[in-house]
Amino acid sequence: MTPVHFAFSTTFILGLMGLAFHRSHLLSALLCLEGMMLSLYVALSLWTLQLNSISFSPTPMLMLAFSACEASAGLALLVATSRTHGTDRLQSLNILQC
């Protein structure tokens, strides 16, 4: 494994661990998801550059578009949750109450 692949793998794993272990606020969960998506985007971009293939070149842009949609949906949920519950703490959310 090259140092570049190791760096992107470590970045993704750290984002995943942050998402799994530090689930106190919705904003921190969204930041961990964005870090994971950013590491995947950069790794996929470098992978397409290494392959020198034109057929894989739109893939990173498609993933970046999905990441932007995920971020906007997450921020909309963050605003809606903080307006209705007064906080973004995940412990205050109850799935049984609507």
UniProtKB/TrEMBL annotation:
Bilayer-crossing regions: 6-22, 29-49, 61-80
Record GO biological process: ATP synthesis coupled electron transport
Main location: mitochondrion
EC number(s) per entry: 7.1.1.2
InterPro entries per record: NADH_UbQ_OxRdtase_chain4L/K, NUOK/Mnh_C1-like
Enzyme class label: translocase
Keywords assigned by UniProt, alphabetized: Electron transport, Membrane, Mitochondrion, Mitochondrion inner membrane, NAD, Respiratory chain, Translocase, Transmembrane, Transmembrane helix, Transport, Ubiquinone
This protein's record includes keyword Transmembrane helix: yes
A GO MF label: oxidoreductase activity, acting on NAD(P)H
Xref: Gene3D superfamilies: 1.10.287.3510
Membrane topology: Multi-pass membrane protein
Database matches in Pfam families: Oxidored_q2 (PF00420)
Domain of life according to the entry: Eukaryota
GO cellular component terms given for this protein: mitochondrial inner membrane; NADH dehydrogenase complex; respiratory chain complex; transmembrane transporter complex
Alphabetical list of PANTHER family matching this protein: NADH-UBIQUINONE OXIDOREDUCTASE CHAIN 4L, NADH-UBIQUINONE OXIDOREDUCTASE SUBUNIT ND4L
Function text: Core subunit of the mitochondrial membrane respiratory chain NADH dehydrogenase (Complex I) which catalyzes electron transfer from NADH through the respiratory chain, using ubiquinone as an electron acceptor. Part of the enzyme membrane arm which is embedded in the lipid bilayer and involved in proton translocation.
Similarity remark: Belongs to the complex I subunit 4L family.
Name this protein carries in UniProt: NADH-ubiquinone oxidoreductase chain 4L
